[in-house]
Specification:
Layout lengths: L2 E2 L2 E2 H6 L6 H8 L8 H14 L4 H6 L1 H7 L5 H5 L3 H8 L8 H21 L2 H7 L5 H11 L5 H10 L12 H7 L4 H11 L2
Antiparallel strand pairs: 1-2
Helix pairs in contact: 3-8, 3-11
This protein binds zinc ion.
Length: about 190
């Protein structure tokens, strides 16, 4: 998503109308940290579905995915059976790809075990925040399905876990830098008590 041809995504959206779906996504979602596990998983669902398609296709179907995948409720998705898979495969409002759907269900189950071990998906991701991109890719490869290099990288960029979603001089980059997360407050508290 960082590049649209020769120009950056930031440059690309800078001339777009404020109601353009790319502009809305860039200004309000792309690179912004996500606190909620279901929403984090929802972003992964979108990134997996993008494989082989344009991001624009996914953005246009964003709300359809939310409805089709139980508002991105990880617990519900982890329990999807063949009836649910068939429901999704006949849902024309989303991307009907069996491999993607099965991978998402597998990944939901993996997230449930991550939540049991680490408290939350967000904790687990934050614990790995210092990893290099190659280490992240290796970690995603052994943990999830359908998460190759591009999908992993885009998921991390789009959720602010990896720096570089926006160009240095993009106004949204500034806005994101100013966001203080509860996890940051915890580490500040920790530092002040050393
Ligand atoms: Zn930007």
């Amino acid at each position: 998503m960082a590049k649209q041809g020769a120009i950056s995504y930031c440059e690309y959206v800078s001339i777009l109308d404020k109601n353009n779906i790319h502009k809305i996504y860039h200004d309000n979602e792309y690179g912004f940290p996500i606190q909620d596990d279901n929403e984090l998983f929802g972003r992964l669902i979108l990134e997996i579905n993008q494989a082989g398609l344009s991001w624009e296709t996914i953005l246009k179907k964003q709300s359809n995915f939310r409805v089709a995948f139980s508002k991105f409720d990880i617990k519900k998705i982890a329990k999807y059976d063949d009836i649910e898979i068939n429901r999704l495969l006949s849902d024309r409002s989303i991307i009907r790809n069996k491999l993607k759907i099965r991978s998402i269900i597998f990944n939901a189950k993996q997230v449930i075990s991550i939540q049991r071990k680490f408290g939350s998906l967000q904790n687990w991701l934050n614990n790995n925040k210092t990893k290099t991109i190659d280490e992240w890719i290796a970690l995603f490869k052994i943990t999830f399905k359908f998460t190759g290099r591009e999908i992993t990288k885009e998921f991390l960029l789009s959720t602010g876990l990896l720096k570089g979603a926006h160009t240095e001089n993009c106004p949204i980059n500034n806005k994101i830098q100013k966001i203080i997360l509860p996890t940051d407050i915890n580490s500040l508290f920790f530092l002040s008590n050393i």
